[in-house]
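Researcher: Here's my situation. A collaborator sent me these components and asked whether they could plausibly form a single complex. I don't have experimental data yet, so a predicted model of the whole assembly would be a useful starting point for our discussion.
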Amino acid sequence: MADDAPVIYGLEFQARSLAPQSAETELNKFFIGTQSLRNENIIYHIEFEDESNGINKHVYRHPDGEIWQITSSPADKQIIATVYNSVSTTKAELKCSLWLLPPEEERSRTFDEPQSPTISLEKIVDLPRQEGDNLVHALWEPQGDGSKIASISESTLSYLDLNSADATARVIGSAGIDTKPAKKFCSLRWNPHQNCNQVATGFETSLRLWDLRSMKSVKHIENAHSQQIRDMDFNPNRQYYLVTCGDDCKIKFWDVRNADEPLKVLAHHSHWVWCVRYNQCHDQLILTGSSDSRVVLYSVNSLSSEPYGMLVGDDDDNENDKENQKEPVPQEDRMIGKFEEHEDSVYAVEWSIADPWIFASLSYDGRLVINRVPRDEKFRILL
Amino acid sequence: MTTVGEEGPGDRRKRRDLLSMYYGKSGEPGKEATSSDQLDIDGPGFDPDTFFTRLVKEKSLTDLMKKEDELLNQITTLDSEMQTLVYENYDKFIKATETIRQMKQDFRNMEEEMTKLSTAMNSITKSSEDIERTLRDRKQEISKLASVHVLLKKLQFLFELPNRLKQAMEAQAYGQAVRYYIQARKLLEQYGEISSFKKISEECNEIVSQVAGILKAKFRNEECTPQQLNECIELLLHLKEPADLLCDEYLIRAKVKIDADLDELHRQIVLMETIKEQISTDLPADILEFVDIGCNGFISDLSLVIASYQELFIHRFQSNVELSRAASNKLIEFVQKSFNRYFDYVEKRVGFEKETGDNTLLVRALDRFYRRLQAMNKLLPTVDFTESGTQIVYRAACGRVSHYFESLKQYFAACLTDIRQALAAQQASARNQRSLSDFLDNLQKSFIDQLKATLTNLQAFVASDITFCARPVFRQPFCTQQVREGFVVRMFQHIFQHATNCCEMTSEKSSIPAPLLLILSKLCLDFSTSTIQYMVVLVEEQFFIQNKAGLTSISELCRESKETAQKLLTHYVRLEGTVVSQMIRKSIDTRDWVNTIEPRNVRAVMKRVVEDITAIDIKVGQLYEEGSRKEQSSDSSKRTAASRQMGRTIASFTPSTIDPSVINNINKLFSERIEIFSEIDFNKVSVLTGIIKISLKTFLECVRLRTFGKYGLQQTQVDTHYLYTYLWRFVSDENLISFLLDEIVNSTLQRCVDPVPMEPSVIECICDRG
């Protein structure tokens, strides 16, 4: 059974930012923000139809500047936030704003004139920031009512409360790095466990976990990577497990309770690894994107919540199942595949929220590739 | 059956000749007579006619006359002789007749005498029968009396026995006493019940038990000689002392001596143990002396014990199988116990030898130890001491091998540390730059020398005059498992492991300097090409290894070595690439590219990059060969090609209608994907290409994260052009560099707010000035 061919879609501009629409659990929807200094940037709202293998898209104008990062509200399908570069001839500043998508009926399918989207996003609020301090990353709390957002600037981690009623963003707490010489925050990720009271931040080669209630660092992994940490992700099912990636071409798995040594190190990329994502349903599946223009999918059973495959329910106790259960052999950790559809550095990969077997990757040259987990692997997990 | 008839005719003839000779008559006168016989006048075959005719024919008249006279003379002589003979014989005949007559007369007398004798004999027989008849009754009485006499004699002996025993005891003639007692014992046992004898018996037994007591005391006495001892035991055995008790006693007695020997050995060990603490001024014996002490003390004494025990007990009991077996079992148990202790000490003592560097003493000691064990085996063939002896020797040898392994390991580590320090010192001062190949040669040479020296040391164990090495139980595993696998192969593997660890050390503090990686890489490469082959073959020759089944093969080892070399080189490239990358990255990250000033110069960091890469090039060149490049044009055309290439990027950009990324993508369609961290070949060009690729890719990624102003773009143009002009010569494929640099400029263009590129001529001008 041949796997379906990946779907490739080219954007008009270069792009770095890709995010799944968190509040959409039925359709495979992604947001992409372009990155162009001299043209007006746009936000693509992509829908991937699994049945037809086709792509629908809406485009909205994002007039304020090139988009570096994008995140979507987990509660409201209409709201997204972008980190963007506001450029003048003398200054380039990174800011973050919340945007309201136009209502459904006003959206126009713009297959005909992709170059000139007519509808613009409506800005809700700018996130507060200090003058001269570049915002780097902003992320919505992955669960909840969409009222909490965490952001990092180069020097500060902020925890913000959004009030959609009067369109304000209030800083609940903030914290900085006390190391000398001062290091810059470069990556951010929520811990979905423990009521979302934790975020992880990467700065240079170190990793720090913060408790948002006290805004104190609760865990520090010094020199987690030999070079800069680019991204990390929490295991959605095992609360102490975390994966990081960085410029040393490696991805490392950690148990935050005992983080002296990584649990596992994988090195399948030949350049910096820019992003890493756990599959939200099957946490043995891990996706990475790298500036060697490749996307790699791993199966790390040994550290997943279901090392022996899906547990079969008690109801269907036919003999085959019994035999299977008698000798649960954990599958080996391995690389499932390298996806080589990209020709430039891949800065973002994301799983679809709706379908756990679909993932999207975006390379700098504006190529979006939507791919599926190979069927063999899918069956291996399910059966 | 042989009959006379079957005898050969020759035999018969001979016999007949003999007979005829005896009877003075020639058997075959005619037949045998030749002409000369016929002529011999005295011969038996004389033929007068022939003789005569011959004479007439041959002789002259005078001669004939002469002959006639002669013959006449002879005839006369013969006649007179004949007469004499006849006369004499006649005389004799008469005498004989007389004699016969005389004899006849005598015999007649004798006959009468004989008859007389016969009658006399008859009367004698008769009287003798008479006498016998009368004497028969008396004879029985006499013999009875005689036996009573004997009995009385015995009884007298018995009555005298206590006194005699006492006397003998007092005279210390215990042998005599025991002999008396043994003679009497049967009687005493026989008549013991009778009251009068009871006393004697008791008395005797008492004395004898005293004697036995004295003998035992003597037996226990440490000072008595073996002969005395032998005597004692013999007497005691005669006294029916239980043999097994005697055996025990004997062994206990022997144990005192043996234990003293063993205690001495133990003392040596304690000395050894305490020497480090300087408690004792008494220096412990070295291993050879120790073994000597063991041999001369313990083993000699034990041999004596065994020999005399066998003499005293086992041989004596030969008739009694059960007893002899029990006795020899006791002996074996005793010997084994003693030997266990001995082995224990020897093992311990040998254990102390692990630290010393020299082998010969130990090997000699072990050899001596083993020889003595072999000798023991001859003495007591039922117990095999050499088995455990070989084990001890083997363990000692293993201990040596692992000790050598450890020290070589340390030596290697020390070599590396030396190199590290030397490299660090070099970094500190620019003077006295030693070439890396120098270090490599030194390292390789000293390591191989050390390895060889160690092997020579270990060879002592398999020297031809060493007895234990003849045992396959020792030799086989020692040569293959220990020396080849456990030492040489393991050493190489250790180096590979160590090198691999070097690659995996990620933390900044403990990371090893890059040049050392390079040296190690080359070392492993050299190992794989020649050294391993050489060393393994050497080992196999020196240690006579023929059966190589199950051993690590040379090719396997070489493969491992090459892999390690590859790993090291790859790591080196990454390390150096990262160093250069960090430099570039910092320079881009820390600058405000929007508000930078117009470029007047190449940035210092780019010069630094070129300097560093040049330095790396020199270092790599000291160890690795140049390697092949793709076809390249001459230097002068290079420059123009470079500017042309630069020009292309800019030209494609200026008509602003086409997005540069489109051009970029089209360009990419025609170029292959570049592996940034790819496999590195073992040559200089490949290494340099790797490092440059990593650095430029970093450049590219960093540029993409920044926003540039007009002058920022121009500065990048200048920098990339500068890099191109200096870096192309290092790489295998200059298109690769130009491609990456184009990418950088392109990305900068895209990241530029106010894209006004600089004129190529100005760029070249600035670069030339820089």
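Model: Some features of this prediction you could bring to your collaborator: Confidence is low (pLDDT under 50) at residues 1-7, 26-33, 633-658 of chain B. Chain B touches chain A at residues 506-508, 578, 594-595, 661, 664-665, 668, 673, 675-678, 697, 701, 704, 707, 709, 750-755 (CB under 8 Å).
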